[in-house]
Amino acid sequence: GGNRMLVANNILLSADQFALKGQVGKSLVTRNLLWDNGIDTGDVAQMRNTLLVQPGLIDEDHKLGENSAAIDAGLRQVHWLGRVWQMLPPADTRGRAPDLGALERWTGTE
Q1: Structural contact between residues 110 and 58, judged by C-beta atoms closer than 8 angstroms
Q2: If you count DSSP H runs as helices and E runs as strands, how many of each does the chain have, helices first?
């Protein structure tokens, strides 16, 4: 937790207890996917645009399957605390928007 955290473009999966807890104060939790957690959230001040669907991962390396809801679901930038935060450089994005999670889906590499 914390009172000035930006949590965006993540897949939070299979946490035994809380996926997110204690993001209070000026913290912002936006554009994340939560699935199969003990409890998804607790004490989150600002939470926006959250997906509550199966992430469509295809292997233990957490690659996104072609029909995953996480594809192109992320934000390129976030306006927060009076400035613009770049989430992923355009050169590293494939598709309309960044994918959620640690890995951008690169077609033709499966």
Answers
A1: yes
A2: 0, 9
Q: Which two tokens stand for residue 54?
A: 């199966």
Residue type, 67: N
pLDDT score recorded for residue 90 = 73
**Distance, CA of 71 to CA of 88 (rounded, Å):** 14
- Residue 46, token pair as written in the block: 């600002």
Dist CA 35 CA 103 (whole Å): 17
How confident is the model over 48-68, as pLDDT tens digits? 899 999 999 988 888 999 999
Radius of gyration of the chain (CA): 14
* Identity of the amino acid at 102: A
Tell me which amino acid residue 105 is.
R
The torsion angle over the Cα atoms of residues 48, 94, 83 and 10, rounded to 10 degrees, is: 40
What's 98's DSSP letter? P
**Burial level of 27, CB count in 10 A (0-12/13-18/19+)?**
buried
